[in-house]
Amino acid sequence: MTATIENPNYAYPARSAGRRGPNLEKAGWIFMRASGVVLVVLIFGHLAFNLLWTPGGIHAVDFGFVGGKLAQPFWQWWDVLMLWLAILHGSNGMRTIVNDYVHKPTIRTVALWAIGIAAAVLIILGTLITFTFNPCPEGADLSLLPSFCAEL
């Protein structure tokens, strides 16, 4: 007895040998592997500094700790790079899932646009917050601010 398996209906057929231009799916695949490795280093560095190398460990992490950390350009860039890569990595994964499982072109287009807009908004807002965060705003009531603000 012979079984015949029909050709599955993929949303995107395999790349033909005669096609010209950049292979965006391959670039996305490579980006996922590279960003994953960099994210592991960034996340474990973030956790090691906050939980192991800081005197007091987890109990020392409070508003003042975060405010002091975000006042340093090194940690601003570290956190922004981690944010950008995490959002781009996650949105690229969601894009892959949508391309694999959503077969109606209109719904696929709407979903991909929604993922792109959400990623852009999160990157813009996260970057703005990281670089403009001020734990000691001028004119604020000193009783509401962290203790290190009174020294300034």
Automatic annotation (TrEMBL):
Alphabetically ordered keywords of this record: Heme, Iron, Membrane, Metal-binding, Transmembrane, Transmembrane helix
Spans through the membrane: 30-53, 73-90, 110-133
Pfam families in UniProt: Sdh_cyt (PF01127)
Compartments, as annotated in UniProt: Membrane
GO molecular function annotations of the record: metal ion binding
Alphabetized InterPro entries for the sequence: SQR/QFR_C/D, SuccDH_FuR_B_TM-su
Gene Ontology, cellular component aspect: membrane
SUPFAM superfamilies, alphabetized: Fumarate reductase respiratory complex transmembrane subunits
This protein's name: Succinate dehydrogenase subunit D
Species in which this protein is naturally found: Agrococcus baldri
Taxonomic lineage of the native organism: Bacteria, Bacillati, Actinomycetota, Actinomycetes, Micrococcales
